[in-house]
Amino acid sequence: MMHQFVAVLLLALALFPVAVNSFTKTDFPPHFLFGASTSAYQVEGAADQDGRKPSIWDTFALAGNGGAYQGNGDIACDQYHKYKDDVELMAKMGLDAYRFSISWSRLIPDGKGPINPKGLEYYNNLINELTSQGIQPHVTLNHWDLPQALEDEYEGWVSRRVIKDFTAYADVCFREFGDRVKHWTTVNEGNMYSMIGYDLGLVQPQRCSPDSIFNCSKGNSSTEPYLVTHHMLLAHASAANLYRNKYKVKQQGFIGFNILVHGYLPLTNTSEDVIATKRAQDFFIGWYLNPFFFGEYPAVMKKNVGSRLPIFTNRESNLVKGSIDFLGVNFYYAFHVKNNPGSLQIKNRDYLADMAVERIYIPENITLQEEIPITPWILERMLHSLKNDYGNFPIYIHENGQLLTRNTLDDQPRVEYIREYIGSLLEMMRNGLDIRGYFVWSFLDVFELQSGYEASFGLYYIDFEDPTLRRQPKLSALWYSNFLNNKTMDINSKITMNIEENSSVLSNTPLLHIAT
Ligand SMILES: *[C@@H]1O[C@H](CO)[C@@H](O)[C@H](O)[C@H]1NC(C)=O
Ligand SMILES: *[C@@H]1O[C@H](CO)[C@@H](O)[C@H](O)[C@H]1NC(C)=O
Ligand SMILES: *[C@@H]1O[C@H](CO)[C@@H](O)[C@H](O)[C@H]1NC(C)=O
Ligand SMILES: *[C@@H]1O[C@H](CO)[C@@H](O)[C@H](O)[C@H]1NC(C)=O
Ligand SMILES: *[C@@H]1O[C@H](CO)[C@@H](O)[C@H](O)[C@H]1NC(C)=O
Ligand SMILES: *[C@@H]1O[C@H](CO)[C@@H](O)[C@H](O)[C@H]1NC(C)=O
């Protein structure tokens, strides 16, 4: 498998030479942030401890994930108990920022109502530990883990009632943590949450129409993805409005929203495929950014979805418009887009049929369970396209990383992936994009959404058979640490590592030798 991707990489490099061949951290603007990401259910563990109640992710994982993989987040990386050690590793690595999420059902176990004092204490401890080490907390409020109580009561994001409860939850977070947290992201990957949770029914809360290939017991793929996104937009806007009115002057923070940005390139240069590519972008990205920048959904969505697309009142439209201070972008994969008008003939169309495109992975035969091709030039193209459509707004790359089998300590392909993207960021900024930070997904080997504990993105390896869950740096952790400590990173250099030196990051002994 690997050779195929090396070949693809070399081809990509040959066709699209990276302008920046050698770089150091000081080539980046002084306030540019380098970090790493995780999310609550994927790292915390202690799922039923100290008053936490289940989220929709607990329910999904404990039910067996639709058979796709085994495992759950009951223990995960146990960051709930090991946060001090983890923050120490972050500090030694040299991270500027840590992106994590708050478990809503740990802080407010029933989704609304009383605050759990132990939950409050945990996040205060984590945030204090970070800030005492000079690491900025970048906090996501909802990362695929709505409290199960709200799912049971009113079907969660499908209902408008979520807007009020989300705003009250955000209010607690701003009030309790906002003196130290300056970067808030309301929702992670809103577009994928809606699509794979409510159209495909592949992940929590596993809702889809009865005729979907996944056997959902509830849902409606024709309507719910649109309702869910509508409510996410309104919940975001409501929380942002609250922040601006009640906290902003005092706390001076920023509110953003996060989406997954796929790379989209037309399969051919025919006008059909070029227009289809624009349509795919409108469905995946414009679905959120048009409301954020213009207060309404893209015209092509209104046309194709018709009366199933919710409508913003004037008041709502004005509230949503201008409600993000920054966009969080997660980027991994790219697709070729082919026009597929036939899908508009289907009765009871779902979200994907409304889009009327066929998406073909680049390269065509990749599966989601193997190494991801390295395509920073496609990310750059996507970001220029957003700048062109919406203006030059601040962007944080919130997630980017390489999937490998978990026990690969010598994760050279991950090093190549991260190095190519970081090197390319310099070029992107020189070309005028307003990128403020870059977070590797993921800091540790976490409980992955689609691969459980089988494959992972972590900079640190965790042997889940080891009762102490010891963290071991992979080559990528050592590479990143070298970079963060201003070692020159030559794009053509071969990185050598003696795995026996794997404690260098942990113990702060001299950093690795980079052979050129
Ligand atoms: C989904 O909702 C629409 C609009 O209410 C309805 O026409 C359709 O029959 C529903 N589909 C399913 C599978 O329930
Ligand atoms: C859905 O249920 C059918 C019938 O029980 C079964 O054959 C099929 O494998 C199930 N599909 C999934 C994705 O679980
Ligand atoms: C489409 O046109 C562009 C610009 O002329 C070219 O770079 C690209 O290779 C063409 N793509 C295809 C699939 O023909
Ligand atoms: C994927 O495509 C490449 C190039 O066409 C080919 O060399 C490789 O064998 C294919 N891999 C699989 C798993 O089909
Ligand atoms: C980082 O390295 C570059 C290149 O070697 C050097 O010019 C710069 O002064 C270094 N910065 C710091 C803070 O050490
Ligand atoms: C590095 O990791 C290996 C493999 O787990 C372990 O046996 C070894 O003790 C570690 N080396 C150091 C210096 O900690």
TrEMBL record:
Q: What is this protein called?
A: Beta-glucosidase 11-like
Keywords from the UniProt entry: Glycoprotein, Hydrolase, Signal
What InterPro entries does its record include?
Answer: GH (IPR017853), GH_1_N_CS (IPR033132), Glyco_hydro_1 (IPR001360)
Q: Which family does it belong to?
A: Belongs to the glycosyl hydrolase 1 family.
Stored PANTHER family = GLYCOSIDE HYDROLASE FAMILY 1 PROTEIN, GLYCOSYL HYDROLASE
Q: Where is the signal peptide?
A: 1-22
Which molecular function GO terms apply here?
beta-glucosidase activity
Superkingdom to which the source organism belongs: Eukaryota
Q: Which BP terms in the Gene Ontology apply to this protein?
A: carbohydrate metabolic process
